[in-house]
Write a structure and sequence with these properties.
single chain, 8-stranded parallel barrel, two-stranded antiparallel ribbon, alpha/beta, binds NADPH dihydro-nicotinamide-adenine-dinucleotide phosphate, 10 strands, TIM Barrel
Length: about 325
């Protein structure tokens, strides 16, 4: 495993990390979750991503039990939570980025994950109903209290991140260290263009999500979606609707050809492509099966095979997708 600094912060995360969205506490058994975390840790993964909303708190409970059972030294791994959507309740006091919910979400995550502090704590989306300064103050205070080490954002705009930094600087507070955006061969605009001015100024780090565009870049899907996959899960029709289409599947076939020439599977190739971007601090993997994670972890070594010539061919293959964004 190799490591990268989280932007300008001193913390170094493993290039590949493991997330739990849709899988822990939902799609997979707790035994599979444990096997995934063990495999990841044994391969040098030092960051596990979570959020209050994942399986309405259950994902954090599952992860917390595994962390407790494994007894890995606390100084060998990092764990995150995210606040905004709530853990199920939808009352105004139970969601958002106001002081009350951010503090309560932090306490709840600490309890569910069975840890004394969160290494990373993200604002899962911007909250137009709360002044950014209130959130910055709250995060700063949680850091001062030792409950959070680094705070960040997820799917915020560059303007919102800049505003948070300007407020933090004006009041001598700690601003957001990292952003968690989607980044993959089909979603590039935020990381490559919108945030470009933030990397060298505020030193933004990035923990990127859905490197396989929810599995589409594994190459296993038809237009209906692979039967045992998240794209066929009840309640996720919107995801299939939004991400899966004929034009993308055609590009996937082209990319598969390039990967095969290098002797790589498409998922390994697509994850390695994300790692080629030095602005990416860590690529967060998702997996519903141990075999998937075993395969995807090969991306660390595979990145060296993606020469400038290969990268240029990829540009041609995904032409037209460059400006796509999530929100
Ligand atoms: P991916 O885009 O890599 O999708 C992972 C899914 O793709 C797996 O669960 C599996 O789903 C399928 N898959 C993975 N590897 C393979 C393989 N080798 N062969 C075939 N299928 C494969 O990542 P995620 O969307 O899971 O995102 C990663 C993490 O990022 C999340 O767990 C979460 O922690 C974070 N995240 C953050 C968000 C945010 O708003 N901040 C939003 C979304 C995710 P299946 O078997 O069901 O097909």
């Amino acid at each position: 495993m190799r490591h990268r600094r989280l932007g300008h912060a001193g913390l170094q995360l493993s290039e590949l990390s493991l997330g739990s969205w849709l899988t822990f506490g939902k799609q997979i058994t707790d035994d599979t979750a444990e096997a995934l975390m063990k495999l990841a840790y044994d391969h040098g993964v030092n960051f596990f991503d979570n959020a209050e909303i994942y399986a309405r708190g259950e994902s954090e409970r599952v992860m917390g039990r595994i962390l407790r059972k494994m007894e890995w030294p606390r100084d060998t791994w990092t764990v995150s939570s995210k606040v905004f959507f709530g853990a199920g309740g939808k009352l105004p006091t139970q969601v958002g980025l106001h002081r009350k919910h951010v503090v309560e979400a932090c306490h709840d995550a600490l309890r569910r994950l069975q840890v004394e502090y969160l290494d990373l704590f993200f604002c899962h989306r911007p909250d137009p109903a709360t002044p950014i300064g209130e959130t910055v103050w709250t995060m700063h205070q949680l850091i001062m209290q030792g409950k959070v080490l680094y705070w960040g954002t997820s799917e915020w705009s560059a303007a919102e991140i800049k505003e948070a930094h300007a407020f933090a600087q004006a009041h001598h507070l700690i601003g957001p260290t990292m952003e968690q955006p989607q980044y993959n061969l089909f979603h590039r605009a935020k990381v490559e263009e919108e945030f470009a001015a933030l990397y060298d100024t505020v030193g933004l780090g990035t923990t990127i999500w859905s490197p396989l565009a929810s599995g589409i870049l594994s190459g296993k899907h038809t237009l209906e979606g692979d039967a045992s996959s998240r794209l066929r899960m009840a309640g996720l029709e919107w995801l299939k609707e939004r991400e899966l289409n004929q034009a993308r599947l055609k590009k996937v076939e082209e990319l598969k050809g390039i990967a095969q020439e290098l002797g790589l599977s498409l998922p390994v190739f697509a994850i390695a492509w994300c790692l080629k971007n030095p602005r990416v601090s860590t690529v967060m993997l998702g997996a519903s099966k141990v075999a998937q994670l075993e395969e995807n972890l090969k991306a660390v070594d595979a990145q060296d095979l993606l020469t400038p010539e290969v990268m240029a061919r990829v540009e041609q293959a995904v032409a037209g997708e460059k400006l796509s964004t999530w929100s």
